[in-house]
Amino acid sequence: MNSENQEKFEIEYQAGKAAFERGDYSISVKRLQIACALIKPNSRLGGEAQMWLVTAYEAGGKKAEAIALCQQLTRHPHPETRKQSKGLLYILQAPQLQRPEEWMVKIPDLGAIADSEPQYRPNNNSTTNSNRDRQKLVIPEPIDLTQVNTKDNQFIWVALILIIFLTGGLIWLGF
């Protein structure tokens, strides 16, 4: 592979991974497909890019494509890619469990509320409000250390002597 293709591959591969991590699965699939076309599929890096493509297919709702590519990767020359693809294929082919309705949490659509209620709309004066809030902050007065009582009150010595006497008394009485 020449350096120009290597550079294009790296750009597309990183862009595909970044799109996947942002949740843009369709963009991730497109970028990873381009990256996979630019590199030898039987290389270690080619296998890694194809594994990312399998996960992007699955996340994007293209389970059949994900399973088909993952089955191809189980025969990949690189042992680590084979091992990962077998584990991923096992997960992809696992049956979907049905969850009871009472286990599910229903999240209400708050988009309609925010559009209809003016008090929930974002305020365009957010910068002026933040400046006002900063002006309202109260900075505490510094403490005058000359007014603080730093005189030793002998409490530690009294407590230490009391502990010594109690320990000695317990030893003397045999407890």
Automatic annotation (TrEMBL):
TM regions (residue ranges): 155-173
UniProt keyword terms in alphabetical order: Membrane, Transmembrane, Transmembrane helix
Signal peptide positions (record): none
SUPFAM superfamilies: TPR-like (SSF48452)
Spans annotated as Disordered: 115-135
Keyword Transmembrane helix found: yes
InterPro entries on file: TPR-like_helical_dom_sf (IPR011990)
Keyword Transcription regulation: no
Name by which UniProt lists this protein: Tetratricopeptide repeat protein
Species assigned in the record: Limnofasciculus baicalensis BBK-W-15
